[in-house]
Amino acid sequence: MTAPVETYLLSAPVAPGTARLAREFVTASLVAAGRWPLIENAQICVSDAVANVVRHARVPELVVQVSVHPGRVVVAVRDDDPGRPPWPRQPYAGGGDAKGLALLRRLAHASGVTWVWDELRPVGKQVWFELREDDPAPVPAADSGNPQPAVVQA
Hints:
Layout: E1 6-13, H1 18-32, H2 39-56, E2 61-69, E3 72-79, H3 101-107, E4 110-118, E5 121-131
Antiparallel strand pairs: 1-2, 2-3, 3-5, 4-5
Helix pairs in contact: 1-2, 2-3
């Protein structure tokens, strides 16, 4: 019998302070699930994913979801702006801690973008990343990310 997936959700306004709120939420979720070794990388990754939404999406709120599976944790940051996909960019030079999604890809075991669908049209997207305790994240030699987001029905 497999262990049930524990899911934690946070809905928050798209505002400059939301990255800090998301870090605290992810930290609390991982502490509750007993996944302490994953906290530091999860904080960095969720901070950059949220900062990406704050900087580029044109929406009033976002959702952070933490799904705790046996052996892995998946964190997703969703916004309901299907017209502005997250393309690979250079690190943000305008200040702040955000390093772009390239840092997220380096720290996570896996990551990607999933379109969120309502029937036959996309209504949003989510940037997600997976962390594992027993399998350290691969560190790519160069950023070879595909600039096209995945098209998957959520």
